[in-house]
Every structure is written in C-alpha cells, then in structure tokens.
Fold this sequence. Notes:
Helices cover 28% and strands 30% of the residues. The chain contains 3 helices and 8 strands; from the N terminus they run H-E-H-E-E-E-E-E-E-E-H.
Amino acid sequence: MLHRALLFLLLLASSAAAEQAQYGKPGVPQSGSPARSQTTCPWLTQGSASRLLGGDVSIKVYVSDTGAGSCRFLRQQGSHDGLEILVSKAALVSCPTGSTELKGIGNQAARCKAPGSHSGGVDMVSGRVRDLHFTVTRTTHGQKRPVKLSDVQEDALQQIAEQIAGNLY
C-alpha cells in the first residue's frame, strides 16, 4: 500500500512538473496562452467522473486558451481514487507499442497500465485528435494486491476516452 501511495505521488509530481513546464504556473501568461483555473472540465463532466470513480469527486481544472490543459478528479470519500485528463499540442507520455489498440477514439488510441506503474492500480488510455494529444489516467488506491479492472470498468474508461476525443473534435 505504501508503494502505491508513493507511485501515485510520483505520478502526480511528474505530471504537475510536465504541466508546469508546458503551461507555466496557473495564471502566469505564457506565449499569449495563459493557463487559467476553471470550475468545469471542457472534456468531461463531473458526473461522468463520479460514475467511473464510484462516488462524489472534487475537481481541479487548468486550461489555456489554446485548448490544452488538465482536469483532475479525486474521489472525496473512501479510497480517494483519481482520474486525470491531460490535453496537449506536444506529445504526452503514451501507451507503449504492443498495448491494446482502441478503434474509433481519435488516432493512435491505446489502453495500457500507465508507464512506470507496476502495482496494477494505474490504467491509462492515450491518443490523439488532430493536433491535440490526450491521456486519461485512472488511479486506484487502497487495495492490498494489484487491481484488475472488471470489463465494465474497462468499458467505462474507454467510454470516457471516447467522450474526450469527441469533445476535442
């Protein structure tokens, strides 16, 4: 369990560092595209995230006027599972070659365990729509052994990715 918590913190720190490197600090103008905090995610509703994570969620959203940014949903009670969406014009960390390919979700869409995740609790869908790259990462906590997503949960994660890709068109 400590390993999972450390992995989650490492993933959050690395995504925050990547986001800061790409978008700058929230509210600080970068090349005419300041990142700004919002209360709603442009790619996914809070209700859809709540259904996937199994409870009420809090949300943190940062989006630049170029359409790039991030949405982070965190389950408020129980296991504190999370869902993160990253959208960028620059390439993002994506599923490695040989991952499960997903048809009908933009270009080069695939599902995998998040790179660097050996505990089984971090599942990811990555893809591209036109010139925007995206990742959807679901992190589960509190399990004593690696988690295998049920078919329904895998379908829900895929449906979330479809919704995001559709909103990027």
